Amino acid sequence: MVRWLCLAFVASFPLLAAAQAYPAKPVRIIVPAQPGGGLDLIGRTVADQLGRSMEQTFIVENVAGGGGQIASMATARAAPDGYTLMVGYVGTHGTNPAVRKLPYDAVKDFTPIAMVGGTPNLLVVQPSLPATELKSLVDYAKKNPKSMVYASGGIGLLNHLAMEQFKGAAGFDALVVHYRGIGPAIQDFLAGQTMMMMPGLAAALPHIRAKKMRPLAITGLKRHALLPETPTFEELGFSNFDGVQWYGIVGPAKLPAEITKRLNAEINRSLASPALQQRLSGEAIDPMPMAPEQFGRFIQADIAHWTALARERGIQLDDQAR
Known about the structure:
This protein is α/β, with parallel strands linked by helices. The chain is built from eleven helices and eleven strands. The strands form two sheets. A six-stranded mixed beta sheet has the order 2-1-3-10-4-11, with helices on both faces. The chain has a five-stranded mixed beta sheet with strand order 7-6-8-5-9, with helices on both faces. α2 (about 40-55) links the parallel β1 and β2. The termini are far apart.
C-alpha cells in the first residue's frame, strides 16, 4: 500500500510542480469580441490585475465572430495548463446554449474559474407613451397590441429573451424588430421607430439621463445605485427576473485545481479593491465574486433558465440562416 501511495505521489509531482510555478510564461486571455465594449473592458481589466498580482504578462486576444463560437472553440481546444483563458459571459455560457446548436458544450468543455461581475437589464419605453409605471404599460399594451413594437439587439440575446420573459409573465403581445446589435436598436428607438426595449444599464443610462428613455423596471435582486428610483421586477410582482449581463473567466476543461484556485483567489482579491470597483462602475458592472464551484453552478442554472424560456416562447436560432 505504501509503495502505491509513493508511486501515486511521484506521478502527480509534475502537475504539482507546474501549478506551483504557474505562471512561468505569458498567459493569453481570449475576448470573444472586437476591442471596445464591456467584454473587452473585462478582459483588459482582469489581464491588468492578474499581471500585477502574479508578476507575469497577461495578453488580451480579441477573437470575434460566430456569436462567441470561434473564441469558445479556441479556448475549449487549448491545452488545460492555465495559459489560455477566456472571458465567458451570458452570451457564450448562458443564452447561446439555450437557443442554438453549438460546436461546444458550455459546461463540459470548460473550467469555471471566477465570476467577475454583472450589469442589469431594464425595461425602457418611449417618454411619449402614456405609461409611467409597469402596470399602466401592461394595461396599455393589452388595449393597443398592434401599436406595441419592441427593439432587440438580435435573436436569442439577453435583451430579446428578457423581453419575451416579460411578455409571457404579463400576458400581452408585441411585435419584435431584431437589429444587428444593441447600438442600432437604440438608434431606432431614439428615432421613435419602436416603443420599448430591454437594454443593459450601461447602454441605456446616458439616454435615460437625457430624458429620451423612460425606465420602468430593472432586473436583478435589488435596485441599482445608479437608478435608485427604478424598482425591480420582483418588487412589482414579477418573479425570476434576476438575469443580468454577466462576465467571468473560464478555461479549458480539466484545468488543474491548484491553478483554478489561485486564479480565483487573485481575481476575487482584485474585486475587493475600490479602484477596480470604480473602474467597473463605468460600465455599470457590479462585482460578483464567487468560488469556482459556485460559478459553475451559476452557469448551469443560467443555461437551464434561458433554455426553459426559449422552449416556452418557441425561440430557436438557425445558424445557417443567420
